[in-house]
Structures are given as structure tokens and as C-alpha cells.
Amino acid sequence: MRIAAVVTAYHPDERLLAVVDSVHESCAEIVVVDNTPEGAASMADKIEDTDAITVLRSGVNRGLAHALNLGVSRLSAGIEAVIFLDQDSVLAPDVVPRLAEHFEDRSIGIATPAPWDPVHERFYETFSGRHEDVADRAISITSGMLIRRDLLARVGEFREGFFVDYADLEYSLRVRRTGARIIQDKRLRLPHSIGERRTHSFFGMRIPVTHKAAWRDYWQLRNGLITVREQGRFSPAWAVTAVLYLGRAAVHAVLFEDDRRAHAGAVLRGVRDGVTQKYSLRYLPEGAELTVDTEQGRRA
Q1: What are the pLDDT digits (tens) for 44-81?
Q2: Reduced to 3 states, what is the DSSP secondary structure of residue 228?
Q3: Which of 18, 31, 125, 173 gives 90 a disulfide partner, CB atoms 3.0 to 4.6 angstroms apart?
Q4: What DSSP assignment string belongs to 168-204?
């Protein structure tokens, strides 16, 4: 099976070079899409274009979904499967070949390793222990997602109007609506960072909180609510879990972030725009642009 890797980056550090090197033997083609704005140095500049490696750097951050779509568009016709990777996801040499073995079962459309926290040496998923080593899952994050090329063509592009958050989860739910299965192999680990994590004390309880910029709160709430509304009736169990997760994320943002006013504003605007399916350019990071079509939202 001819496999390609699409690696997305934004202000990457030296781990980007290690990511590319980790899949060099297992992937026939590698496309690196760097969203770092023009004028800023990037480790992607140290990667040399070859017959097998292509580096795309437009100088504008158009979001994760756009980067994924752009990377796929540059792959040759002979590629049969694509693995998506973040700039910090350095894989062990056997991960891609072992994921590809799952495609011997034609019912499987996506195979993915389990996200792993190398600092605390644990799986990121709270209830990971409840699942078998190889288990069907409702969703998959993009980093580590190995997907059949023909399934990509059937499902279509990632939703660029989502910019970053929920672009992967919404896509996963569309994949499952085709009847294709998503499986996770916990025997294979995906080193992955989910941001700064601190533990806070609240009425005697110790609460771990992942901190992020206020603009991420906006896109998480907006995109999450849109996804629940559009896909919830097809995946009700996932939808209930997603609503609980979004509620917890909103509470954490309002109670535990340093600039509570900014985060509260982002949460409220995200909820409003999630209901109305509008979007606000105010919540794009500096140097970013949003690619939106009429189906994906209206500017507020």
C-alpha cells in the first residue's frame, strides 16, 4: 500500500524535523503545510524539497482544515492512504505499517494510534482503560489518523470554516455516516501535546485544566455546538458526551483562566455563533485568514 503523510505546522520547533524523519521510510510522499505567518522564522525552512518531500508555506495562517485540504490536494494519484500528523507527533518506525495492516479489513476506513502524554506517561483519554487494545471509536483526532484515499474522496474536504477546533471530529462523524469504521489501536502510541495543563484548587477539589488562548474557546464552543446540532441525531451517544465536554470547557475557561473577562466573552460569543452559525473574525489569531463558503457560516 502506497501511503503519504500530510504534516501540518504552525510556528514549529525542532520536533517537526523529527516528525518528517519518523515517517520517511514508511511513506512514499510527505507534504508539510506550514501555517506560520510571513516574516516569522520557521523550522519548516530547514526541510529541503525533494522528489518525496514537499514543503508548502504560503505565509498566511488559514487554519488547520485548510492546511489538511491543501496537503491532500498535492498528493499523487497513486497514493492509497494518507496519515495526518501534527508538528510534534514523532512516531515509532513501526506505527504506520502496523496501522496499515488494519486495512486488510475493508470495513475499516480510519485506523489511528492512541494519543499519549509522554510527560506524565499516560493516555490522554480519561476512560482509555475501558477500551480493548483495538476498538471501534466514534471519532479520531487528525494527528495519527490513517485514512483510505478513496474514503477521503467520498467524504470530501475538511470544513475550512471551522478553522481549527472540531474540524477533525466533524470529519470523523461524516466518515462514520458512510458506514466506514474508525478503529483505535492502543498498542500504538501517538506522542501528542494538548497544551498547557495546570491543576487548580476549587472548594477543596483539585481540578486539572488545560489552558489556551481565548480565541480557542470561541472556536471550540462555536464549532462544537454546530457539530452536535448537525450530527447529533446520527451519533447520539457521542453528542451527549460532547455537550458535557463543552460545558466543562466553558466553566473551566470562565473560572480558571487568568483573563476571565476575555475568556468569558469568547465563550458567550462562541455559544451565540454556534446557535446562529455565524462567525467572528475577531477570534482569529494574528496573521490568520478564514476561508468560508456560504454553507459554512455567515459573518456576524
Answers
A1: 999 988 999 999 998 899 999 999 999 999 999 999 99
A2: helix
A3: 18
A4: HHHHHHHHHHTT-EEEEEEEEEEE----EEEEEEETT
Strands (E), the chain: 3-9, 29-34, 53-57, 81-85, 108-117, 122-123, 134-136, 146-148, 181-191, 196-202, 205-211, 278-279, 298-299
Residue type, 219: W
Give the Cα separation of 40 and 32 in Å (integer). Answer: 17
Orientation of helix 167-177 relative to helix 214-231, angle to 10°: 10
Hey, what amino acid is at 124?
A: Y
Contact 28, 1 (CB under 8 A): no
The residue type at 167: A
Cα of first residue to Cα of last residue in the chain, in angstroms, is 46
Q: Which residue has the cell 498566511?
A: 60
Give dist(CA 96, CA 145) in Å, integer. 10
